[in-house]
Known about the structure:
The chain is α/β, with parallel strands linked by helices. It has 14 helices and ten strands. The strands form two sheets. It has an eight-stranded parallel sheet. It has a two-stranded antiparallel sheet with strand order 9-10. Helix 9 (about 170-190) links the parallel strand 6 (about 160-165) and strand 7. Helix 9 crosses helix 14. The chain is globular and about 55 Å long.
Amino acid sequence: MIVPSISSRLSMNMPELVGRLAPLVSGPLLVSAYDLHNNKNIPKISFPSLLFIDSGGYECAKSEEISEYGFYRPEPNEWNRVFHEKTLKSYGSTSPRVVISYDHPSEKRGIGEQIIQARELFKKIDICLKEILIKPENGYNKIKIKSVIDNLSSLAQFDIIGFTEKELGASILERMVSISTIRYQMSEQGIDRPIHILGSLDTVTTPLYFISGGDIFDGLAWLRYIFYRGDTLYLESFGPRISGIHVSGGTIRDQCIYHNYNYIRDLELKLEQFQLSKDFSILGKNANFFHECYKKLKTKMGGKI
């Protein structure tokens, strides 16, 4: 499942964006509980087939990395567990929901405590699919894969198990190994749960994390870049080549959103076809690259994929 995301971390008007997406998006969509709490002008989102309500940690973080890629980095509003729970209880939508457990960048706890807190939250938020977002433990910037594996039986009580892409490793290969290791151990223990990789929606990392064992992918790149023939390209420079130099920037952005959404749906279908056939040629011009990456992953995993 590929899930386009929307967020206040983009320099876009959120209420206007939701209105523009309503006639376009028929599949899943992700929005942050933080944004639903802090922007009361966002209209009720009822058009997706499945609405993911994210934890809020990304929006309230002061990340220098965000500004380097041209994202808007506002002064964060207050965010805490009370606001998160209140938003989840009060937000009405006719779409089925996936609720993601609470996150705040200033809070780091052991995985055991994260599981307990998520379990307590979901006792109060019942009519939804329940996703636990696993975060690095105290004193760590990356997720300890061994801790995840040691707690898999407890994690199996949730419908979906989520990880933020960059917290799974410093390199793409390291992240692929982390995903594959978790997936392999889940299979060994008979745990059939989707793995959600947050922040990984683009033309390259999504297929790579999929062949590693991931199932659900979301991100904001579809609103910032153009997905074109296997590449993720800078909107300001490549957009005019598609739409023309006479077209306004706002029109180019609108055309890009529609184009990227169709690209996402097509990519999702190709990944499903690949899952059935294991034929890398289905994945287009990057097929050889993906195949080589898969072979490197298989070597790292000792053939256990």
